[in-house]
Specification:
The structure is a homodimer of 234-residue chains.
Chain A (H helix, E strand, L loop, with lengths): L26 H7 L2 E5 L4 E3 L7 E15 L5 E7 L4 E2 L10 E14 H10 L1 H27 L2 H18 L6 E3 L4 H8 L3 H13 L3 E3 L4 E4 L2 H8 L4
Antiparallel strand pairs in A: 1-6, 2-6, 3-4, 3-5, 3-6, 7-9, 8-9
Helix pairs in contact in A: 2-3, 4-6, 4-7, 5-6
The structure holds a DNA duplex (30 and 30 nucleotides).
DNA sequence: CGGAACATTGACCCATGTCAAGTGTCGTGG
DNA sequence: CCACGACACTTGACATGGGTCAATGTTCCG
């Protein structure tokens, strides 16, 4: 896979499906399902880097940007969290990133104390947490391969491609979607300036690979060509 | 901390200290201690991306480079593994990176089957694995902040600084050390070409912040200035 | 309608990549 | 012990992708 900009997209601790009995609900999922629902507005923080960890969250609707900042203001977006994703896990007692909503978002809250208790008893939960982290690590490494080695065009094409594929996985239209985040977010995610992101979008338009109805609504015209541009990958 | 280029440097599953009884050895550590010792030569692979996972390894002596490659040859070194570090963990049944010795290296081997068995029974082990991954994730994110947002000088200064600090933690001279890896490895790690790495080393020499006896022996003359150059961090 | 926030576009510049030559350093074989 | 080749590193000259700065356009909302 060429790009994996979705911090926790595969990091779901097994989505809870009431109908499908194939996978029994763990204590964690049961607890989470009863967790309090919380609504946050666009640009509001769910938590900030350095805050003491109180809860772990699962996104229900909306989207979050997860990022770190340097003192001089440079910012690296580590990923975006979408419905189903879990955010806030970590071994220290402080959050290591900022989690800021990019649009109105609802999350379900689980106190970490409850998580710790369960984990001390249930070997399966410990392994799930391990899996979750391992997946996120894999995603982060893919992103690093991207920001470390690829050209602006490869990065942007890969970003759009990942979005398209994510839609497909979720049974939505892979050829037409709304980007919830700003150019600044995309730039800070890919390690580019907003100008470069914008220019690259324009190039893709001129090549007739995409259309931009409004600046955030993307229509993919030629996904194969897009994949080729994004490529350079195993 | 400004840079953390050491993939698994903090990812040790609690170093086993026979003398200190404060921390009881887990089943994992006991098993590992009895694991087979294996010697690999410089440039030899411990495992390659895509190989089926058979063992998890702990480095005893030497150093490994862990990296991914794109089809066109571009390479991203994700980190280096030093004595005490654990490599080979992952949720899939294939290794996700190449692990290649940068100098003669000895590792202790643990079959994953043994690990899986232990983990199914022991909640503490699952949590340790989780911790290990969480630490490595944090290190990878720091590296991403580096390759994504920093200048060549910041990257190289940070790299040397991390090396110095690592030596200090291990009770060795923080002002004088041998880099086990080539300029190519450093470049592919920091997302720079070997020429840029070399030129940056030269600049640091001219600024009298370091000395290079042989091209791989670094003497740090002014660690504070180095830290300042590396900085831009929280 | 007005203004704020975001996006696009253009002109220019610079840090870093590219290409090429030159300089150690090491190990091997004569 | 020296000659040689292999390999890694350094240095220089030049090219360029993407950053910076500035002006303009677009969308949205009060």
């Amino acid at each position: 896979m060429s790009i994996q900009p979705i911090a926790l997209s595969n990091a779901r601790i097994s989505t809870f499906r009431p109908g499908a009995a194939s996978r029994p609900a763990t204590g964690f999922e049961q607890t989470l399902a009863q967790g309090q629902l919380r609504r946050i507005e666009a640009k509001e923080f769910l938590f900030a880097e350095g805050d003491t960890i109180s809860h772990v969250y699962r996104i229900e609707t909306g989207a979050l940007a997860l990022y770190k900042i340097l003192t001089d203001g440079r910012r690296q977006v580590m990923g975006f969290a979408y419905p189903g994703d879990i955010v806030g896990l970590g071994i220290d007692d402080k959050y290591t990133m900022n989690a800021q909503a990019v649009k109105p978002t609802r999350v379900r809250c689980l106190p970490v104390s409850a998580l710790r208790q369960s984990a001390a008893r249930d070997p399966a939960l410990g392994l799930k947490l391990y899996e979750t982290m391992a997946r996120e690590l894999a995603a982060t490494r893919d992103l690093m391969l991207t920001t470390g080695q690829r050209s602006a065009m490869e990065r942007v094409a890969g970003f759009l491609l990942a979005f398209s594929r994510r839609n497909q996985r979720n049974g939505q239209d892979p050829a037409s979607f709304e980007l919830p985040m700003t150019r600044t977010d995309i730039g800070d995610f890919l390690g580019l300036t907003i100008e470069t992101v914008s220019r690259t979008f324009t190039k893709l338009k001129l090549m007739h690979l995409i259309e931009l109805a409004h600046s955030n609504h993307v229509k993919v015209l030629d996904i194969d060509a897009l994949a080729e541009l994004a490529d350079g990958d195993a």
